[in-house]
Design a protein that fits this description.
single chain; GIY-YIG endonuclease; 17% strand; disordered C terminus; 4 helices; 3-stranded antiparallel beta sheet; alpha+beta
């Protein structure tokens, strides 16, 4: 994936079935780097939510924001089902985008 601006909705997890975070960005690579580096204080740095487990690319920002709001309203199980449908092992998809695997301290597996 190139370092270009493209609207994207993404889901981060602290580990398999762990804490989830849903966000929207115009630059997924930069945003993942920000989350992983904990350069911005907030939810993901506080709860070690750094594993990219799902993302959806869009042509324009308005539909991406609409999708983010929709996903944030979903029940937790629906979000888990969405992740399991395309990423049943909850692999860190950021590795395929050029990021190094997370250190063992940055992943938490659930049940």
């Amino acid at each position: 994936m190139q370092n270009e601006r493209q609207p994207c909705v993404y889901i981060l997890a602290s580990g398999r079935y762990g804490t989830l975070y849903i966000g929207v960005t115009s630059n997924l690579i930069r945003r993942i780097w920000q989350h992983r580096s904990d350069v911005l204080p907030g939810f993901t740095s506080r709860y070690d939510v750094h594993r990219l487990v799902h993302f959806e690319m869009f042509g324009e920002m308005i539909p991406a924001i609409t999708r983010e709001k929709q996903l944030k309203r979903w029940h937790r199980q629906w979000k888990i089902n969405l992740i399991n449908a395309e990423n049943p092992e909850w692999r860190d998809l950021a590795v395929a985008l050029g990021f190094s695997p997370l250190a063992s301290g940055k992943t938490r597996d659930g049940p």
